[in-house]
Specification:
The structure is a homotetramer. By secondary structure, the first copy, chain A, is an alpha/beta fold. Chain A contains 6 helices and 8 strands.
C-alpha cells in the first residue's frame, strides 16, 4: 500500500479547557499527541484555546450586534471555515463536556443559516473528531454530545472519531501529570496507555482519510441535500407519506 | 449535475420498536418514508423488526454458547455484514432510545473482536444513520447515543444522519396516527411536517452519497487504523508522548 | 447523636446485569457491599437479577394481554410496590446502562397510570438510588438516565444517590475480579477504593435517612401534587400564565 | 388536610438563558409561573439571570485568585447558600442545556470542598429542581444532566422535579411567544398546555414539601454521610468487601 499524501489538508484543534493561558491544560497535552502525527504527515495545523478569547454567549453569528461589547467569534469562525478537519478538545466536569465546549457548539450552530455554493449547510464536506481528558469518568458521554452536534450541523464523522484518557474512579492525576498528592509518578499519567495511544492514532488517521476522500470529491453532491433546492420545491425521489 | 447511481448499494433498516408484529409500529411508518426513497433509487433494502426475533441479552457473538437456549443474533448479523448502510429506528421512552435499541448496540458491539481483511474493525467502510419517533421529547438524546455507538465501533456518519418526528410536550399522537383521544386528525400526525420530510430526505441521500464514495474507495485505507498492524508494533507517524 | 433505627424499612435491589445466574455478576458483587450495610442496620432486603426472569418488552402493566406468552413483570412489580427503597444496579456497555436497565425503566414507567390512595403517582414517598459497574467509563452517564427516570415517575432522590466502580480507560478488570489477563491481582479490583467504599456508604445511609423521614411523614402531602385533584379542576395556588 | 405553611422557606431561581437583560427570556417567562405559586404561598423568592453577571470560567471558588480580572460568583454563591430550594432554569440548544447552565454547575461543584457544621457537603438539606424551555426537543436530556449534578453535590430531588415546555419538532415559537413568522398566535405559546401547567405546579409543591420536611429535620442526620467522620476513620456499618 502506498503511503497517502495528506499535505493538502488543514486541521484546526479547538481546546475547550476552562484554564486561561499560560496555565497548563491537560487537554492541550493530549491534543499535542494528535498534532504531532498531523505535523509528521505535513498537514497544516492550527490550535486555539477558546478561553483565551472573548467569546460572547448567544446564538447569533456576531453578538456585538446583540448587546455584547466584544465578540471574537467571527474571527475564529474564519479559521473553522478554512479547516478541512475540526477537532474539539474538552476536559470533563461532573461527567459532562466543559461549558466552553458547549459555548463553542452554540456558536458553531449559530452559523447554520449559512450555505455553501451548492446550497448546502456550510460544514458539508468537512470532518470532525473529539479528544477528551478527565480524571475518572465521562469520556464517552462528552463525546456523544460533541459528535452528535457536529454531524447534525453538517460535519462527517469517520470511524472511531473519539479518543482521550481518564483514570480510574475517584480523585487522581489528569493526563500528563507528573505528580499526584505530592508524589512523583513513574510516568506522566496516561502516556503509557496503549489504549489511548492507539485511539489517538486511529482517530487522527481516520480524520485524514475521510477529509482526503471528501476533498477529492469536492464535498458531497448536492443531489438530495441542498437546503436551497428543497426550499425551491425540489424533493428528488422523496414522496409524501400517505395514509394506507 | 448528473443523477448518481445508487443501485449497487444495500441498506438494512433495523426497527427497535417494543411492539411485536403485527402491531402497528410508528417507527416502521417513519422508516417507510426513507425506504421509499431508497427503493426509488434502486437500492436493495431490507428491514428487520428486532422484537419479532429471539435475541439474547449479552455481549458475546452467540449467546447459545453462554447459557441461552435460543439466539437469532448470528443470522441477523449476517445481514448487518452484507449491508453498506445500517439505519437504526427506535421509539423513545422517557427520553431514551428503547431497550431493544440498547440491546442491538450491545450485540453489534459484541462483534468488535472481528476484523476485516485489512485488519480493521469489521464495520469500517459502512455508514449509519438513525430514525426516531416519539410523542413529545428525546429525539436528539436518543440519536446521540445511537450515532456515538455506531462511529465508535467503526461506522462512518454522514452529515445530518438523524431524523424523525416528535409532537409537542405532553401526551399526543405519534407519527402516522390518524386519531387521538377518539378524534379523527385532519392529517396523519407528522406527515405534513416539512422539517421531518426534509430531514428524512437529507439523511437518506447523505447515507447514499457516503456509502457510494466509500464503496468506490473499497473502504478506508488501513494506513493508520489497522488493529492487526498496531498489535504487531506498527505505529505509522505516531510518536510516544514525552514529558517536556 | 443517637443511632437511627432503620429496622422498619424494606429495600429492593434490582440487578440489571446481562448475565443469567449462576454466572458471576460484577454488579452483584458491588450490590453486596451496600446490602451488607443494610442488613447490619436490620433493614429487610431483597435482590432480583432481572435477566433470570421472563420480562416482556413493552409499556403495558402486563404484556401477556398484548401478545406475549409470558411476562413475570406483574409479580416483580409487587416487590417494587412493597419496597420503601429501590436500588437499580447496572453494568455499563459502550458508556450506557444495560438494555435490561432500560427495560426495567420502561416497565416501571408503564405503571404510571396507577395512583396511590392520595391520588398521587404510585411511587410517591419511595426513594431510589443506583449502583454501577464497568471497566472504564460511563458511571455518571448511566446514573443520569436512571436517577432522572426515577424522580420523573415519583421517587425521591437523596444526596449522592449514585455510586460504583470503574477502572481506568481501556480494557481491564471489573469490580471484584481477582485476575486479569491471566495474572492474579493483589486485591480484587475496586475493593480497596476508598472513593467507592465511601460513596456506597453515603448512598446507602442517605437512602435510609430519606426513606425513614418520608415513612414517618406517611409520604408527601397531596396538597399540590395529586393527579386526581388536578384532573378534577383543583389548582391550589397555581395561576394560569397571562400575557403581559 | 390542612394547608401547609411554606412561609419560612427561601427559593432561588437561576436563569441560565444566553440573553442579557433586558432581552426577553422565554425561560424567565416559564420561571414566573412557578414563582407566582411560591409568592402566593408566601415563600421568599429571588431570581438571578446569570448572563447579566461576570461569572468566570473555572472550578475554583473565586477565579480572581486564578488569573481572572472579575468574578461575581462568590456573591452569587451567598444566595445559593441562603436558599432552601434552588431551581435552575435553562433554554435548550441542539438538545443540550445552555453553556451558562453548564458553567453554573461547574461553579456549584467548585464549592464541594466546603462542609456544613455536621461535616457534610454544604448542599445537604437543600432541594433542587429544573425548568426548561426550547422550541422542539431536549427537555428530558437537559433535566437529566442538571438533576444528576444537583443530587451528586448534595441536593435532594423530590418527585417530578423537572418541568417545562417545548413545541413540536422543527422551528417554532418558544414559550410565551405571541407571534411566529409574522403571524399572531391565538394564545402565547405553551400557556394553554395543561401538561406544562400541571408539571410546573407539581414540581413547585414537591420542592416546597421536601424543603419543609428537611428544614424541620434540620437537614440530614450525619450518621453515615459525614466526609469529616469518614476521613477520621469512622465507617458506621460499612464493612470492607471481602473476596469469597
Amino acid at each position: 500500500m502506498n503511503k497517502p499524501d495528506f499535505s493538502q489538508l488543514n486541521c484546526l484543534y479547538i481546546n475547550c479547557t476552562l484554564k486561561k493561558s499560560p496555565a497548563k491544560s491537560h487537554t492541550a497535552t493530549l491534543i499535542q499527541v494528535s498534532k504531532n502525527i498531523m505535523m509528521n504527515e505535513k498537514v497544516t495545523v492550527d490550535e486555539i484555546r477558546l478561553v483565551d478569547h472573548e467569546i460572547a454567549s448567544g446564538v447569533y453569528p456576531d453578538m456585538t450586534e446583540h448587546g455584547w461589547r466584544e465578540d471574537e467569534w467571527p474571527s475564529i469562525f474564519k479559521k473553522v471555515e478554512k479547516a478541512d478537519i475540526l477537532v474539539i478538545g474538552t476536559p470533563i466536569w461532573l461527567g459532562e463536556k466543559s461549558s466552553m465546549a458547549q459555548k463553542l457548539i452554540e456558536r458553531l450552530y449559530a452559523m447554520s443559516g449559512q450555505r455553501n455554493e451548492k446550497g448546502q449547510y456550510v460544514y458539508y464536506g468537512k470532518v470532525a473528531g473529539t479528544m477528551i481528558t478527565g480524571n475518572e469518568d465521562g469520556l464517552k458521554h462528552a463525546a456523544m454530545g460533541i459528535l452528535y452536534a457536529m454531524q447534525h450541523i453538517g460535519y462527517s464523522i469517520p470511524p472511531q472519531a473519539d479518543c482521550g484518557w481518564i483514570g480510574k474512579i475517584g480523585p487522581g492525576p489528569s493526563y500528563g501529570d507528573v505528580e499526584w498528592q505530592g508524589k512523583q509518578l513513574k510516568n506522566p499519567a496516561g502516556f503509557d496507555s496503549d489504549f489511548t495511544n492507539k485511539n489517538i492514532t486511529f482517530m487522527t488517521y481516520n480524520l485524514l482519510h475521510l477529509a482526503t476522500i471528501l476533498k477529492q470529491q469536492k464535498g458531497y453532491s448536492n443531489y438530495g441535500n441542498s437546503i436551497k433546492d428543497w426550499q425551491s420545491g425540489e424533493q428528488w425521489n422523496f414522496e409524501n407519506p400517505e395514509y394506507r
